[in-house]
Every structure is written in C-alpha cells, then in structure tokens.
Amino acid sequence: MSIPVVTCGLTARECVTGLEKLRGPVTVVRWCADLAEVIAVCQTGLARAVILSTDAGELTASLIERFRNAEVAVVALATTESDQHRLDSLGVAHTEADVGAAALAAIVEAAVKLAAEAPSPGIDSVSYADPAAALGRPATGPPLSGSESAQTEVGEVMAVWGPAGSPGRTTVAVNLAAELAAGGRAVLLIDADTYGASVAASLGLLDESAGLAQACRLADQGSLDLMGLNRAITRLAVRGSHLGVLTGITRADRWTELRPAALTKVLELSRLIADVTIVDCGFCLETDEELSFDTVAPRRNAATLCCLGAADTVIAVGAADAVGLPRLIRALADLEAMVPTATPRVVLNKVRAAAVGRGPERQLREAWDRFGPSRPVDAFLPADFSAVDSALLGGSVLLESAPRSPLRTAIAELAGVPIEQLRRSRVGAGHNEVKFSRNGVRLLGKGPQRSGL
Question: CA 125, 39, 28 angle in degrees (round to 5)?
C-alpha cells in the first residue's frame, strides 16, 4: 500500500520527481507552499507523512506535536550540521538534503512505521483542544506512557496546585523551596501559573525577563540544553544555600509561550540540575473543546495539566474555611478525572479558630472525614498573616523574616527538614544571611553550590 506524503520547501520539492519515478511505497499527493498549508492538509487526513526542508520555515516542538496529534510522521531534509543537531533534539527523523529517492522512501517508511507503533495522544493530549472530544469520539489510542528520558531523570518534580480563591499556592511553593534549599538540597523553583504568576514578586525579583518563557522558547526551537537552562535561571541566596528560580510570564495573555512540548523539555532538564524541582501551577484544569468547537486550538490550561502530569508529587493546597474546603474537595475530583496518575498530598492552609471554631484541626479533620475523599489530610498550616505580610513586604521567605513563625515550622515539617538542623547551620559565620545590594537586588551568599544551582 502506497504511503501518501505531502512536501514543503524548495529542497523537498526537488525530491518529488525522484519519488514519483520509483512508483513504490511513497506517493506525493501535494506540495504545500508554507507550513500553515501543511498543517491544514495533515489535519484533513490526506497524508500519513510530511517531508520538510529547512527552507520551509522553523520547525518547532509545538509544530511537531501538532503533526503527531494528526498521526502524521515527519521527515526533515537537513542541510547543515547545526540543523541535524537541532532535529535530533526535537526527535525528528532527518537525512541529508541530497539523499537519493530510494533512500528517502525507506526513511519515510520507517518514520511512518515508528509513528504507527507509538501510542496516539488522541483526546488525551493536553496541548490542543480536540473538537471531536465534544462529539464523544473515543480515544484513538491508549494514554501516553512515561517519557523515554525517564532513565536519565534523577531529580524529583513536585507540583504545588490548588483551586481558585487564593488558598496560598505560591506561599507554600516559595517557602517549601526555601526550606529544602536551606536543608542542603539543590532546588529549582518554577513559576508556571499562566493566570497570575507571583513568585518573582514574592521574592522581590524583577520579573520582566520571564525566565520560564525564555527557556520554553529555546526548547520549542530545539536548542535548549543544560547551559541554556542555567542562563535562564535566577539564583538567590537562602541561608547560605542557593535557590534557583525560573520566573513566570508577566501577563496572563502570554500563556501561549508556555507550550506543553517545550515545558516538558524544561522539566526533563530540570531533573538533571536539581534534586527537587518545585512548580507553582495555575488553578484551572478546564479543557477547551466546547470553546474551540470548529478548530484544533492550543489549550488554555495545557501548562498546568502538563506540570501535574509530569510531577512525581502533587501538593494540593486548600483554604481552611467554609468556602475553601468545599472548593478543594470538588477540585480534587476534577484532578482525578483530568490527571488520573496524580496522587496528591492534601494540605489545608490558613488554619485558624476564627474560621472554623474551637480546635480548628479537629474540626477540619472531622469535616474532611465526613465530606472529603478517602485521601487523608497530610498537613495543617496555621494562619500567620502578619509573618506572611512581613515576608512579602521584604521580598524574603519565612525562614529569613520569621524563623519562629508556626507557619514556617509547619512548612518545614511538610518539607521533611528538621528545624534543629537549620538552627545549627546558623552557628558561626554571618555570611549565611541573605544580602542585598544598594539597589535592593538580592545577592548570592558564599555557601556551597550543588548540581549547577
């Protein structure tokens, strides 16, 4: 059976005559003028493979994922060594531009066979809204399995997530990262909230650079490596240790810069440079099929779904009051439906007697046992609004501004860092304190640096 193929680019167009003369396994059904036309043709089901040359336009990770969602194999014609290296990073089959017709046909056959053996994303893909899902079309393949790079993943990814209503996701994420860093771990804090990124403001950083968007841009181009990721990271000094930060997008309308294919690459590399990567996620898990019924469009909340799916641990933060607790219970049901592999650790924040009555932990535990899921509450974080306000005003963390705060103690226990260990680390040199320059910029201390952070 002949494989229908579309081509794009001048170099790829020159191969058409040779492929047609073979009268073999490959049939060129269309030559497209640009990548937009290629995508449109592939989404109609007209082709099973596409041959692209580098002069057709920039081939990105997001574009490749779009082809894979359409179950179309991609073969690129590379003209330079740098192009070959970038295509290898993107996982695209490629060959030299002057390849013979028979050899090119064999490469196309192999790429199509490999694409057919791979699990199809179907409607489980978090990157693009599939209008067929709204019509009840069944998935075209099993769910995606773990990444092939899992063998080289050495660090842990921890996602901090919670429902709408400001339950304290960023406060927990920032201070959890600070406690782990001060405890001797190499920590990378990523702000992936596409609605209201606030990690930079919480730490007193200038957030114009949007480090995560910069890293995702390089990953989308296939040029992100460990050196490039390190350049995008802002490094802070916390109790003499180093904390790496990838700041979030500065405006909510920039959410399209955090494409899941690129974000997945960033998370994979973060495992190689950090013992623990903590991701501050957005709240919304809603999919967009009904909103984009007439087209295949990027999903608004794909970054959050991507981070939750890639995380080894999900910390679900909810507000401990009459509004926040029901929201968390409903949100956990949505999380189970959208990310079945997630096993969240439930954390109730802002615990106080004024909101739930005398003996707040006992009251909350009884309410959770009665109305909540079978999963227990892992931690109760007491409300300490004055300490949090003081830390926010100073652009610091509770470990620095309010080390005796009960909230700081509870977060340290959640992180598994002994308080006594942190107290002993203060004995001796005064350089463990966080320092600021005259213009208010946080400077690195002299503590040891691990794993590139």
Answer: 120
